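Narrative of activities, Objective 1.

The group set out to show that a structural description can be obtained from nothing but a protein's sequence at a throughput compatible with the screening campaign. Below is one input-output pair from the validation batch, recorded exactly as produced.
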Amino acid sequence: MNMGRLVFLFLMLPLFCYSQINRDSLVNSERTMDRRFTLYKGQMRVEGTYEFFVFKSQYDENGDKVLLSKSGISSNQHTLNANLRYGIIDYLDAELQIKYKSLNYRGEPVFIIGAPSPPLWLYTDISTSGFEDIYLGINGRIPMPNNKIDVGGTLGVYLPTSKSESDQPQHVFTSDASGDVINYFYKENWGYGVLSVYYKIFLKYRLDNFAISGFYESRVPNAESQNLTWYSRLTDSDIFLYSSESYQHQVPQKSNISIQFEYQLYQWINVFLDYSSFRSKGGWVGESGNKVALPDEKLSVINPGYEVLISNKLWLRQGVVLPVSGKNVFASFSIHTTFYYNLFVN
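Output recorded for this entry:
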């Protein structure tokens, strides 16, 4: 009996190994431009992205570009993104995303000439760091008769898992023979405070070594949010006392239209150029019982880059993002690097 089982396992082992090899070959033989919008059934993909932003300019309400350095303003941001996807069936996969962001902003310094008091310098630093709201979503694609056309869509939610209200400031007062200095330190957070819905529509058309794709995506908060306004008072003992007041506000709806051109140089390397147009609208802040509208923001960028297949399971994608035009928004130069790792888990 034991010998019979051993023979059965011996005969079935090659079939099992062939099945695994055959499933892995679905990804191994796939060029970057041929990659489907969704994963295969049982496929798991782990993605890790790092992006560094340097804010050098700002677009004003007329769309004119203003250099921040002329006003003594500086700002940069670090972003770490972890993404996990799993193929439920060949045309449907689930996605989990966790993102950590750290934004540092130093405002324009203010100098007040003292008379008869000593001169006073005012500095403002705003730090926004921590996790964004966790994202859960489903990606689906329409079965097509060939691989030339890919049509898909995404529906997901950002759960209000991260803190949304501002933390208490930590201002500092110093004084010496040359004058007084006040450093205003503010701490903000990335959470929306409410659930928001995300959706995306995707379309791609392929030729032999060239592909063009485009998508529209949007994130829409489903309710108003609440935040805190902090007030401070410097006492005679050079210590700050703080108080806060809550207010209602509406986080703007954010959307993006993107077009990508790809060229497959070799089996293992792909170059691309993206054009994206971001827009933020519909936000407001409550002041004295009134809803004060926030200005709409617009930003257009290009993103040239490449993707390399390091191995059958590991991919590397890098690119730079350059601002083209905008309105009521800071413009940044950024560099991003993403690693992808693929495997079949069942």
